Fold this protein.
Amino acid sequence: MRKSLLSLFAVLVALLPTIVLAQGVLIVDQGDHAARLPRPPMWPHPPHPVPPVRPEPVSTYKIKELSVQTTLNDQVAKVQVTQSFVNTGSTTMEVVFVFPLPYDGAIDRLTFLVDGKEFDGKLLGAEEARRIYEGYIRRNRDPALLEWLGQGMFKTSVFPVPPGAERKVTLRYTQLCRKVSGLTELLFPLSTARYTSQPIEKIDFQVSLQSQIPLKNVYSPTHPIEIKRPSDTNAIVSWSAANAIPGGDFRLLYDVGAQSLAASVLSYRPAGQEDGYFLLLVSPEIKKVSDVVPKKNVVFVVDRSGSMSGPKIEQARGALKFVLNNLREGDLFNIVAYDTQVESFRPEMQRYNDETRQAALGFASGLFAGGSTNIDGAIKVAMAQLTDNSRPNYIVFLTDGLPTAGETNEAKIVANAKERNQIRARVFSMGVGYDVNSRLLDKLARTCFGQSEYVRPNEDIEAQVSKLYNRIGAPALANVTLSVDVEGATVEGGPSVNRVYPREVMDLFAGDQLVLVGRYRKPGAAKISITGSIDGQKQAFAFPGQLVEKSPDESLAFVERLWAMRRVGEIIDEIDLVGKNKELVDELVTLSKRHGILTPYTSFLADDQPGGGIRDFAAQSRRANEALESLKTADGVSGFAQRDAKAMLQRAGSASAPAGPSGSLGGLAGGGGFGRAKFRAVDSDRDVEVQTVQSVGAKTFYLRSGRWVDSTLTDEQEKKVQKVERFSKEYFDLVGRYGKDVAKYLALEGDVTLVLDGQAYSF
């Protein structure tokens, strides 16, 4: 086995679809006695409806800690995984450690240790592993292992874990990572870690990327990773969580290249007759501090009205000082402070140097709160400062209240800003606290090519402004435009791509990464063209891409969900700032229901409505239409919460990891998956997690009268539903017929109705 694995490792370097496994499960080996895997409490929040009671495992354990340390060098991953198991039962558990292997992967140099002592284990091929998996599933009446049918496994011999005892299991191995559309992929199936009696106290991931060629795009479609780049050929990727239950796999994608701008395309088309989905990653060169960075113009507009008194004005001064200390030689800047009156640091833009920095810091120290809020006057003064359109121009606009002095009409303030913005300056609006007119700030940002940020009353203004400025501090390519040309496309056929988000790419920044999603009509080889300017000089870049005709599996289904999240955000934004119509409301309901993306206006989809309420589209559209009336509220907790929730969807960077078929907490508890759905409660500005909606793979299921129902189920399909007994031959035959993409759906617990190729199955 070892020799054949090494042979595969050597031969399939360019072709091998590698899946790097993070950790495994402990299976209690008690002969013919059923011993289900442990699950955490799933339904802790009455009075929400609950599914049928499931049998409790005879023996239980919890995963106390999970640590994954990986070094990935030019596609070769060296992995060390440490996992602490604790027997939470009252009897000694006789267990085996089972580690799912990729069905077509090869692992080299695998070492298994228990409490530091090397332990025996065997690598089993897919066929032998399938027999063992099926044996566990049938004997324990537990579908948990079903999703790994069809792939190999690493399995140890039996070892004991006394009651209350802790065992630290360590796995070390080397594996090759696959290429996906030019990106190297690293995948950790964390879904095995959801089988634990309690949330995991500590999860820690760290991946060190090393390359001979400069690293470009580094992206996780599943988790909110932190990326540090010590050099252009090295990156440290980390993700951590506490008291969490990971519901889905951890995925990391990266690419390399010597060019100053890198772009990669991932495409997904589940149905050949419908428009496909694509994701474009764009990263500019990672410049060192000593490198020449394009110059910019920045005006910081700060509210000093009476409502800013106390900690707010102190934090605003701190934020302003941070920006001043992080400008670069050659930048032009100014400060506009406003209450009833508007005051500038200097009459015109100042060239940044030590002398002007010191003077500006003194001006910032002298800011004190008092007076009313003259928003229109402040924007007028700031816009008048910016006259040089050969550079990127930014206005960082901060306010904590409503316009109460000067022009106070929302529409006129926006119209004035648009008229005065002759050089396409980007306005980044920052609303502080619940008293702001959030709709006004969103309109200003949308009209002036920027975006809105919101700071809650208990959040630090300085930290939020610093975070924003760190992202936009070093422009790498200004006034960016994008075009996609597909081979064989004609003018008569219309644009090659459509519904692309974000709608305006605006500028790219050094160290930042653009994540762009859209739809495409025609598949085929594509040319992606990106143009912009650097220090006033026109720049153009071209990259190849492939838009697939039909996706072979669901491995890139996250692209569709990410597009749907962005589209939902755009629909709400359009309704909010322009007005609603039936088409937009209907599309909002359709996308929310199909993908389990609950919003404050579609949260009713989580209600358990007997009698097939999930398919009463007319009633759903009416309820959404009524709920959208709340967008008329521009300020207060509701106004703030709605605009912030909308912005989170518009700027979603990942689709999160898929939920586990056990219906676990998903990554919602730990920053990862999108298992159970959440939405923002606008009356409290808090996220509400629901127990009646869960997303698994490319599907969403709703709990209706104790049954999980596929969101795509139609009335006609329900009439012709085919009943399949769990753990029967027909049940396992479905896995054999459809493969791994369907196994995770059959592994759902409770009563389920599933649609496959237009046929509904009930089990």
Residues 557-577 form the longest helix (21 residues).
